[in-house]
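Data deposition worksheet. Section B asks for the primary sequence of the deposited chain exactly as it was used as input, without tags or linkers unless they were present during the calculation. Section C holds the resulting structure in token form. Section D is free text for depositor observations; keep each observation to a single sentence. Incomplete worksheets are returned to the depositor.
Section A, Depositor: J.P.
Section B:
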Amino acid sequence: MSWLGERREATGRLTGRHVLGMLGAFFFVMFAANVALIYFALHTLHGSELENPYDASQAYNRRILEARAQDERGWTANVMTRAEGQGERVMVEFRDRTGAPISDLQVTARFEHPFDAAKDRQTSLSSDGLDYEGVASPIATGRWTLVIEANRGLERLFRSENKLAVADTAPN
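Section C:
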């Protein structure tokens, strides 16, 4: 049993340099992962903002009834927007089932930012007898929801939500 007294030398020794390298690699991977997560958190869509989710859920059935009543009216709305020097112009043409213009409405247009309500812009649209038109404050580039609401008195008769993307139109 000569092997009991012999001492073999290990070929893969763990040294201080190896430990330092492993710690450095570990922290580099953690740093890179954090940088990637921060980048994607700041450069992707952030979701929706609700002031009170409970109240929103309770209003759900009312919104379904309003949507059914709107569908039964058979109204259509042609919505157009364009950037102007002083803001964003919104033009809406309301038509009934027969294609006749609908008058005597109080119409509002609201540009809603996906996650920052402080950036929302709203304007009232005035009628020239046929169509409705107004100008909202300038909006930034990015994704927006354009909400058009038409009321007669206190009753909301029409609501539409239109997703749109605003591109940078500055000259190069």
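Section D:
The chain is about 30% helix and 35% strand.
The first helix runs from residue 16 to 43.
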